[in-house]
């Protein structure tokens, strides 16, 4: 399959790695000086099936799927998708990795074939994290949605389909809810940055890596499952909700968080942490893939 990767920054390079590792041909395009060299340095896969052109129309002319990864600027997306709409074959899905722009907004730049435009939002790095959020716009066809879902599944991804267009989609909104309370706890002085990270990384985060919030609640309810949890812990949980904070990202709070992260790192190299994180992610994903339900 011939796949066009538009924009070859961190996300685009990771997508290219994934596509190449599954035997697809990749044509990448990025107008930035030195983009091809940076892409080839980042891609840890067989590059014989990787080609590059700064000409966007040329890159998508024969593409069977397009994954766009440009900056989150509406006016730039408009220019990109105007070219994609005109140059890509009519039946080719145009998927944007956008984490912030609604697909209906992106479709405005595609008067010829808005029905094949959607969001295919990954989590960084896409070649490791299986989740892809597929978000159709108001004019996206059911055929395009199914084609995208099937394509991402063929890559070993775990796509979910959103039924509404929401700022931040689903997973980023769930993350934002946790960050909101984490920032509030720092602002209140209730816990340090390091202690909050420890609480998640060595507590519920371990279970969250295996099952989502609802199934984790269900398993914690014993024979009664989630119904038992909601009956007995629902009222106190509502009290906790009422006490959750609504912090503002003031300069003082931003400084406290930045200082807290610096202290937590204690001189550790970020590159080493990233390498350890990705190695453990690979081990976890391999283990999950050997189970029947996870």
UniProtKB/TrEMBL annotation:
SUPFAM superfamilies: 6-phosphogluconate dehydrogenase C-terminal domain-like, NAD(P)-binding Rossmann-fold domains. Keywords: Oxidoreductase. InterPro entries: 3-OHacyl-CoA_DH (IPR022694), 3-OHacyl-CoA_DH_NAD-bd (IPR006176), 3HC_DH_C (IPR006108), 6-PGluconate_DH-like_C_sf (IPR008927), 6PGD_dom2 (IPR013328), NAD(P)-bd_dom_sf (IPR036291). It holds the Pfam family 3HCDH. Residues 3-163 form the 3-hydroxyacyl-CoA dehydrogenase NAD binding domain. The record marks 121 as: Important for catalytic activity. GO terms for molecular function: NAD+ binding; oxidoreductase activity, acting on the CH-OH group of donors, NAD or NADP as acceptor. Residues 168-235 form the 3-hydroxyacyl-CoA dehydrogenase C-terminal domain. This is 3-hydroxyacyl-CoA dehydrogenase. It comes from Kitasatospora cheerisanensis KCTC 2395.
